[in-house]
Amino acid sequence: MKKKILLIVSIVALTVVSCDDNDEPDGYADYQVAKALVISKEEFANSVDIIAPRPIDESGKVYSYQDYIFINDKYQGIHVIDNSNPLQPVKIAFIKIPGNVDISVKDYFLYADSLMDLVVLDISDINAISQVNRLENVLYNNIFWPFEADIIEYEGYDYETEILIGWETVTERRLIEEAESLRNGGGIFFDDFALAETANDGGTGEGGSLARFKIVEDYLYAVDSHNINVFDISDLENPEDLEDVYAGFDIETIFNRGNHLFLGSMRGMYIYDISSPATPTFVSEFEHGTACDPVVVDGDYAYVTLRGGNNCGALESGLFIVDISNIEKPELAIDYPMDEPYGLGIKDEKLFVCDGSSGLKVYDKTDIENLVALNHFKDIVTFDVIPLESHLIMVGDGVLYQYEYLEDEIKLMSQIGLD
Which of 56-70, 144-158, 207-221 has the lowest average pLDDT? Predict the structure, then answer.
């Protein structure tokens, strides 16, 4: 089934850096300028490559499979790290995949998005990774508008022959009069786009709470902003693209427990039944104010972090604990204030929250009405965590951290810079 490319664009007021005439007598000011990164369609179709380790540009999502950790470099590819000794992880390769954001692994086959394509890699020999399949136009484009920019430039981009693979945002000194002209539409042409768990025999890997990909038995579920994209991967080398399931608005993450998928969106948490795995069916939803929203589930509760500010909509940030004992009627049990939470994870009675620049926060969740703080690792920027059986993996701003579980706390085991 072919799908058209979709770029989700929100028309937002672009903020211009104001200046005082006394401070800037020459009429110039500094602006954040987003510039389109493009490659030819021919180059894109043959773009996957395995190269030596390289510095990370922007830390993305983290994924663990057997003795390896895979860290996404947003829109560029995947860093491969040998973690057979968690005390001394070693960077061994970089997989170039333009437009990549998510991956998932089953029985030595790695599935990765490359904009609207699904790429299948054989990683049975980690030193000789190879591409075995590429399904074209089966996903929706995951390149989002650069909300942080004051000026957006992509003059000369030919959408007939080229592919937009991302944005580079830089600070440039611009003449205020010209910058205001671009802000008012001179540099933006909307007509160019359509608006809008590890086993010895292979097994599946484990992603963090920010994942958009999830493998459940013989099916891969990949969420985009509106849909659950369903793939039958019973033939691992040759996934079959099945019918999409419309799931709502602003879908951001996916989590699985038993026969249910829990979708985190900017508007709420959606729950889908996958008893018939090829056709997920809606069960219920929990609504909240507009905010960025990953979710994890343990027992009778779903744990949801809401991050306000930026393009997320809400002003307040927090941790919401939702009672799902009645799966058809989820209800808020309690909420706690947070600063800028991203990913979260659970191991037994420990709850881990990546609170952005406020660091990693660890709680005892035995009594959800009274979370007990166990650790607070400050002075680090945190993004997402994976609580493994043996230890905790966390990725921050260009750094991979690993922590040892102790009875009532956790302790740093190792860290490795990715730059």
Answer: 144-158
Higher pLDDT, 168 or 363: 363
d(CA 324, CA 13): 38
* Integer Cα distance of 58 and 77 in angstroms: 10
- Whole-prediction pTM value? 0.82
